[in-house]
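Dear colleague,

Thank you for sharing your sequence with our group. We've completed the structure prediction you requested, and as agreed, I am returning the results in plain text so they can be pasted directly into your records. Please verify that the sequence below matches your submission; if there's any discrepancy, let me know and we will rerun it promptly.
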Amino acid sequence: MITNLEQGCQDPGPIPSRPILKTRVDATSYEDACNRIQAWAEAQRSCYVVAANVHVVMTAYFDPAYQQVINQAALVTPDGMPLVWGLRRLGVPHQPRVYGPDLMLAWCERAAQTGLPIYLYGGTEETLQRLIQALQGQFPGLFIAGSHAPPFRALSPQEEAADVARIHQSGARVVLVGLGCPKQEQWMARHLGQVNAVMMGVGAAFNFFSGEVSQAPRWMMKLGLEWLYRLSQEPRRLWRRYAVNNPLFILLFGWQLLRHAPSPQRSLPK
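Please find the predicted structure tokens below.
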């Protein structure tokens, strides 16, 4: 029996979405996302995928240029539980979380099955070496066509052109980009039409799967408390993000729901 993977994956077509504070968030799942990525990769389409959480949405809310970067992505997944709850309140009742690091693993499994090569861009050389070892141990058929750890400073046009050339020469169909928000989304948008592959922003996944940073327990993720765990791990770097963004998101999204709530029907006079 020939499977869908052996036949090639057809693009599932348009995807439902909802605006959360003006940011488009798509009603997708891990399987749906992987199907779309596979179809785009097989067609060698230049596009990018964003895993959106509260930090992404709030950064976009205050930065119109970044807002445009997010909204022109081929796919915007609900990475954080507040966005999952937001989609459910906006009419997608069974919306699951599509967490960036887990989507990366789901795609690596799909890539190992289909033979589609991937490229790792971001982190440090040490991080990448540990990550490659971990991924190839977990997915023996995974073809990692190349990797590169760019400097943390802004790159020159010549350096960016050299990075694009390396990706093209590798033959990769999907580029996993681990530069962090908002840098990775800006990098992907800047290279739209230049990198003939699907670019997927995966945030801290490189650090998680290389073993450098621990992930929150799954029970905390399900309760939307992952931010509390990450804050305890990196308080100096993350305190401002969570102390400001989270309460403000609740206020602004609450106001969005109030403004768009259906008016109660009044009884007609007898």
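Summary note from our side: Residues 263-270 have pLDDT under 50 and may be disordered.

Kind regards,
the structure core
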